[in-house]
Amino acid sequence: MDTTPDISAAVRRLYDTFPFPPDPLSDEPPPGYNWRWSWPDAYNFCTGQKPPKLDIRILDAGCGTGSSTDYLIHLNPEASVTAIDLSSGALKVAQERCRRSGAREADFRHLSIYDAAELEGEFDLINCVGVLHHLPDPIRGIQALAAKLAEGGLMHIFVYAELGRWEIQLMQRAIGLLQGSQKGDYADGVKVGRQIFASLPENNRLVKYEKQRWAGENQRDECFADMYVHPQEIDYNIETLFELIDASGLEFLGFSNPGYWQLERLLGKAPELIERAQGLTERELYRLIELLDTEITHYEFFLGKKPVNKIDWSDDKALLAAIPELSVCIHGWPSQQVFDCNYQLMDLSSAEFEFLQGCNTRTVGEILADVDMGLDEVRSILSKQLILLTPCDRI
User: Fold this and answer.
1) Is the bond preceding 334 in cis, omega lying within 30 degrees of 0?
2) Cα 75 from Cα 126, distance rounded (Å)
3) CB–CB of 22/28 below 8 Å?
């Protein structure tokens, strides 16, 4: 028996009752910056170069109340944006959010991800954050989106990880048991959940985890409901995650937090263990890392539809002939102390500062003629997502 319609209806009722995310509406553009929603920066991260075009089509698949849509519109001024969601209530908030922020017109559709085939044409960038894990059939969902991705296009995905959400899973089940026949009454579920947390001893593991990780955002009922009384959730580990990815038929281009997936972060004091790990496959290495650090609550990553043309800039002549541009994710520029794409404070050396000052019009070789810096340092700047490079054959 196919329960998909019943589950989808339950998810729709949740978000009609508690539209999510509950970010406040503003008469200003969205605050801060998320480079994952910027086509030039995302493309540069995945391929090593600035994209050949900026007038692209973007799909926000499962836009909710439009926080991601608002960013996608403002960060990609030359793109056309389509946003779909299962909840009509959330879509109304999304439309009002974008209207008030001054975002240009987006094409909002009341549509399930399963029905993405109804959309016209293909998309260069598909954003699907916090959605697939709430589908009864995530594989069907990701395949529906993959079919709408243009060749050379990117898909940005966010799904839950099971190890860091273990306590959340326990509370979800506890609330469900106490609700009994009232399960599905989401307002009652929030009430029951808050009563449980208020009644448990302060040293209880579930209470400590909630206070440590989520209490701030969960003051809002919308966040509490999304976390603890959601009618449908699938949490992944590395093994099941790559089953989902493989089913999409797309190429895995990397996690968008690569620093987390470095084994040296955990076992740097034991070089003999690092050496042993060299025999592991990439996926086995990822699995080892998550087993050793169980705090991970989600995976955020990029997929691409072949051919995705990548440049690693190992060729010195090609790097010297490329034109570097400053990434818009640098905050505090011009200064030798800036915030990088992840809002981490970064101190630039005098040479790095001089190099960045020379970007946007000259080639790497022309800038280095006046700056005491080597090509490896240029590659380091690129790896920190401070610059975008345009190959000479596109200049």
Assistant:
1) yes
2) 14
3) no
Q: ∠ CA 269-270-276 to the nearest 5 degrees?
A: 150
Encode pLDDT of 53-69 as tens digits.
Answer: 999 999 999 999 999 99
pLDDT in tens, 188-213: 999 999 999 999 999 999 999 999 99
Provide the 8-state DSSP code for 231: S
Q: How many CB atoms lie within 10 A of CB 365?
A: 15
What is the per-residue pLDDT across 60-98, written as a single tens digit (0 to 9) for each? 999 999 999 999 999 999 999 999 999 999 999 999 999
Distances (CA, A) of 7 to 100, 224, 339: 33, 20, 43
What distance in Å separates the CA atoms of residue 35 and residue 388, rounded to the nearest whole number? 12
d(CA 10, CA 231): 6
Judged on CB neighbours under 10 Å (0-12, 13-18, 19+), 36 is buried
Structure tokens at 140: 């069907």
Q: Topology of 4-162+235-304 in CATH?
A: Rossmann fold (3.40.50)
The three-point CA angle 297-383-47 to 5° equals: 85
Give me the amino acid identity at 314.
S
